[in-house]
Amino acid sequence: MSARFAVPAAILLALLVPATPAPAQSVLGEDAVACNGGNGAAIRVYVAGLKDRSGRLKLELYPANEDDFLKDDTKLKNEGKFFRRIWATTPASGAVTMCIKAPRPGRYALLFTHDRDGKNKFNFWRDGVGFPSNRKLGRSRPKWEEATINLGGGVTRVAIRAQYLRGFSGFAPYDPND
């Protein structure tokens, strides 16, 4: 066989072995199936700006009104109101996508928190927080309007940028250069 007809082994292997698709991005949380072709209303949340990869991540879904937003979940449930919380271990690397399902299409308020110490209690000095509006939180309590999201019958996608305490100016997106 002459050299002009020789095919390098790597090229030959590439031609004979079918390409495998890249793995799909892993969706975190117990509701992941709802965002991967499940039926019903769900929110697929792309989280950006994590300060580090410690602790756990949490999504909470509240009724979209001022009185119920950030209200204790036990009180909401005792009043017969909807509330849902999902947790996920913070992945060591890669993109962070979480999913939370809703009982039906409609308007809800969504809260994201990065529980960096894993103690299940928001630590003002250490933990991160985020809302669909991505408006800089500063030193004020978030308004429920900043957290509202309208869900259709399928999967609604939203990007949330995590915010952490940044000195006297309050909560703002994390900047590793500061």
Written account of the structure:
By secondary structure, the protein is mostly beta strands. The chain has one domain (20-173). The chain contains 4 helices and 10 strands. The chain has helices at 9-16, 32-35, 73-78, 144-147, and strands spanning 42-48, 56-63, 84-89, 96-101, 106-115, 128-130, 148-151, 155-161, 163-165, 171-173. Strand 9 and strand 10 form a beta hairpin. The longest helix has 8 residues, at 9-16. It starts with 8 loop residues before the first helix and ends in a 5-residue tail after the last strand.
Write the layout of secondary structure elements.
Elements: H1 9-16, H2 32-35, E1 42-48, E2 56-63, H3 73-78, E3 84-89, E4 96-101, E5 106-115, E6 128-130, H4 144-147, E7 148-151, E8 155-161, E9 163-165, E10 171-173
Parallel strand pairs: 1-8
Antiparallel strand pairs: 1-4, 2-3, 2-5, 5-6, 5-7, 9-10
